[in-house]
Design goal:
The protein is α+β, with helices and mostly antiparallel strands. Helix content is 32%, strand content 35%. It contains four helices and seven strands, in the order E-H-H-E-E-E-E-E-E-H-H. Strands 1-2-3-4 form a four-stranded antiparallel sheet. The protein has a three-stranded antiparallel sheet with strand order 5-6-7. Strand 2 and strand 3 form a beta hairpin. Helix 1 runs antiparallel to helix 2. The longest helix is centred in the last third of the chain and has 15 residues.
């Protein structure tokens, strides 16, 4: 039996991201944005637990990335959709970045992730890493 994890959030991107991009897709210029939103809606999934963050995505959901909180050194959030959803970028100790697009309730998710990082990574200072909103 595996280690028990308490799930904080599990699901896909915010539905508003798809709706807004479908409306933008009515213009020729917006078609690539619409295709991106459709692919995200179909195959992007987030799983945020008390132990890790898992992002499943890519073509037909074949790519999976797991990150434990002690590996995260910085979190930046950017509101979108009039603040109903947002994007987050997690910077890891090795310098790589993991982007979470169209996260529902992103402010609450951001606070939860910061709380977990502070507990697992004592040198992390969430106050110094907050983005202006």
């Amino acid at each position: 039996m595996g280690i028990r994890e308490d799930v904080y959030y599990e699901g896909g991107p915010h539905i508003g991201d798809l709706i807004v991009n479908l409306l933008i897709g009515l213009t020729i210029v917006g078609i690539p944005l619409t295709v991106g939103a459709i692919v995200r809606a179909l195959w992007l999934r987030f799983r945020i637990t008390d132990r890790r963050i898992t992002v499943t995505g890519g073509w037909q959901g074949r790519d999976r990335t797991d990150v434990i909180y002690s590996e995260i050194v910085k979190v930046v959030k950017v509101p979108r959709g009039i603040g109903f959803w947002g994007d987050m970028v997690l910077t890891l100790k090795n310098g790589s970045r993991l982007e979470l697009r169209a996260v529902p309730k992103f402010r609450e998710v951001y606070d939860y992730i910061n709380e977990k990082i502070a507990a697992k990574n004592p040198q992390y200072s969430g106050a110094a890493n907050k983005s202006g909103e």
